[in-house]
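Per your request, structure below.
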């Protein structure tokens, strides 16, 4: 069965120097190629929502991005504002420091709080795997499932490394089909995207979506 590659793509633009025109271009490309979603910083949710009105393309926004080290209540507030302004999905960075410090309940409670705030909208939990040991990745998987998240996600794209096939294999082995997986960070070509899909990811976060879907 031929996959609809475009429907795996969260067409992403999170750079600090992205302009209003760049966000509009991102949305136009998403419409031209019928991507699943665009992913933007929270300030641009309302603009993206307006640009994508009357389409089925979702708006995803990042929360606590890219470090994850902000106060829990601020993450909750940011997530709520994103939903109010038209976001359908939230990609939240966990508190990486607290996970590595062993404060697992606080990490889980934070995920729960954001999920409760956004209700039926999708929550993707970003691990930033480049900073975690394999055991910490497994723990993050368990915490995300217990907290009711909809997705786990490999990376922000702003750390020292992005998605790897080995990490996705580890995550898939840990969670099975209980939660979906998004691979993000450094996925720039068709062959690599297909490898991740073959491993079982449901979504690919990339700024190279156009290149991927137009490659032969």
């Amino acid at each position: 069965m031929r996959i609809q590659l475009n429907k795996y793509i969260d067409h992403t633009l999170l750079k600090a120097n992205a302009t209003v025109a760049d966000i509009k271009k991102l949305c136009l490309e998403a419409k031209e190629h019928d991507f699943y979603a665009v992913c933007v910083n929270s300030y641009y949710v309302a603009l993206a929502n307006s640009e994508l009105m009357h389409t089925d393309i979702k708006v995803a926004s990042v929360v606590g991005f890219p470090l994850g080290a902000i106060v829990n209540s601020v993450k909750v507030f940011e997530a709520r504002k994103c939903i109010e302004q038209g976001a359908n999905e939230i990609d939240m960075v966990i508190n990486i420091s607290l996970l590595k410090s062993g404060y697992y309940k606080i990490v889980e409670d934070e995920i729960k709080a954001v999920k409760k705030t956004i209700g039926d909208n999708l929550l993707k939990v970003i691990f930033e795997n480049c900073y975690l040991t394999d055991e910490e990745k497994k723990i993050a998987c368990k915490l995300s499932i217990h907290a009711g998240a909809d997705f786990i996600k490999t990376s922000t794209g702003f750390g020292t490394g992005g998605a790897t096939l080995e990490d996705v294999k580890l995550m898939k082995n840990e969670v099975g089909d209980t939660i979906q997986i998004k691979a993000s960070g450094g996925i720039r070509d068709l062959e690599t995207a297909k490898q991740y899909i073959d491993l079982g990811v449901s979504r690919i976060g990339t700024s190279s979506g156009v290149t991927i879907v137009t490659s032969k």
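The beta strands are 9-13, 37-40, 58-63, 89-93, 122-126, 151-153, 180-184, 203-206.

Regards,
D.
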